[in-house]
Fold each of these.
Amino acid sequence: MTTDAATAVAHPNIALIKYWGKRDEEWMIPAVDSLSLTLDVFPTTTTVRLAPAGQPDRVLLDGRPAEGEIEKRVLVFLDMLRARTGRREAAVVDTRNTVPTGAGLASSASGFAALAAAGAAAFGLDAGPAALSRLARRGSVSAARSIFGGWAICHAGSGSGAEADLGSFAEPIAAPDFDPALVIVVLNAGPKAVSSRAGMRRTTETSPLYRAWADAGRADLAEMRTALARADLDQVGEIAERNALGMHATMLAARPAVRYLSAATLTVLDAVLALRAAGTSAYATMDAGPNVKILCSRTDAALVADEMRAAAPGCRVLTAHRGPGVRLEAVR
Ligand code: DP6
């Protein structure tokens, strides 16, 4: 009987240049590069404990057995870890999220980043940051970025299969002078009707707008890097907002449409426009859910939060900042 076990903590990240669409589903290769900020809120803590070979793997999410798609994805990930390490032990995965799961609040990013780090440690896989990022990507592409704290870029790489795997990973980008706030407006914390995996598949297969958005994203990324280096909040915000709205446009044009934005989302977007018209630098981005994340300066964060509470009564609002990369902790 072995007692190998490891615990890791990871934080979600929010992409300002979005990833949407895969080039290779089996290897989890994104079709586009992306750029994100890892946050200091909503950590996920995951413990992986090895068990004797032959026992079934067990997956616990917030203390209860995981089900459906979530359980399946973790089991596939464990098989991949065993194949990589040549080990045969079973595993018990115990994950605790502080963010609502599957609500477009990046639970899969923090979840698979923590699982990659804890799983690699428990199975004895010696992985540096880039290798760990590639490993996390196999669970969820956005998780590749949560390996790192602060700003990170995830490369789509080139080719397919094992060759593409080598070139698709995240790495940190230095933007030491840029330390904004991200005001998170939680409008609906329930799980989404269409998973991002299914939504992006339908978009790439059927949306006539997808190619145009992916092409425009290359210029967005180049301009974003310059804007970040200059710590230019308005420029960063404008690029992030147009990239996110473009991504949602590709989904709305899918057949049938994939729509994550709700009436409340549009109300919040109006409030963001009103703030800008009144001279406050605030810019919105949305992921696979109705919730809105608003980029602004640290000094304006309280004002932005108040305006959003007034615009969408009953919503939960919290303010996040630049957060840390994944780390191992004493086994829990
Ligand atoms: C809209 O990384 O959750 O949040 O790779 O299929 O697990 P899978 O999808 P996931 O998709 C995230 C999409 C997004 C944009 C982003 O985070 O870049």
Amino acid sequence: MVTSVTIPALRSHKVSTGKPPLVMLTAYDAPGARIVDGAGADIILVGDSLAMVVLGYDDTLQVTIEDMMHHTAAVARAKPRALVVGDLPWLSYHLSQEDTVRNAAKLVRAGASAVKLEGGAKRAPMVRAVIDAEIPVMGHLGLTPQSVHALGGFRVQGKEAAAVAALLDDAHALVDAGVFAIVLECVPREVARLVTASLPVPTIGIGAGPDCDGQVLVFHDALGLQDRVAPKFVRRYASGRDDAVTALSAFASDVRSGVFPSDAESYHAGEDLAGVLVDLYGPAPAAGHVPSSPTPTSAGTDVGSGATMLV
Ligand code: KIV
């Protein structure tokens, strides 16, 4: 864990200087941010992967700056210790420098401390403009999902010598423009190692092997919350979807068999009101199919832990 998660501390965070790899995870809402922060991540990325893992789109191109503001604000409300980076979505930094700075500022006003954008040398003027407005920028090279159509699909990048040379040029152009870190997505391990060794700022890999200065995974991938086939670089640390289906099936079963909620999980009228109700409406009718001494079958009996503070 980085002791102080600030941009200057991150900018010089190179594994080659004896520091441990940086830990970055995505989050898209307040409970997710609390979980990621509780796990000790250094950086929370409110990624535009939001489009695919939360909003149900097939690619990231559909997500808007308003979507990103909404979810960045939710993450920021958790007040995490980790640095919050907001992803600039497709077309929010392509039109003009002024438009780019305004969009980056929207994510900062939503609670991000920095923004991320995809692309290399051709995005350098936009990076400079955002940094001139005092907003730190993280770069993103290799597989850049916002270019899915131009790249011909979600494919490993940097597989030929010319592509590696272009990747190195792009990485240096971003560093010259002032980025404090660069995400390297889906490039061969050897290429990621070369880029990492040649840069003064940290690389954060996803599908780029272990030699980067940090690693990032998407929240839903790490927790096994998706049922899609995961790419080979995803390691699942939990079976979140299966566990959730099992738990909620128990709830459905408890409801259908009448054992949820139990009497102990119900509020009761005081004696005075109970008497008044009998006077006004007569004795309460029998409780239908609800067993007289219900016993919950599910694990959860934690009354009041959910939507309300009532106990
Ligand atoms: O949007 C995202 O989640 C990302 C990570 C994969 C780096 O850009």
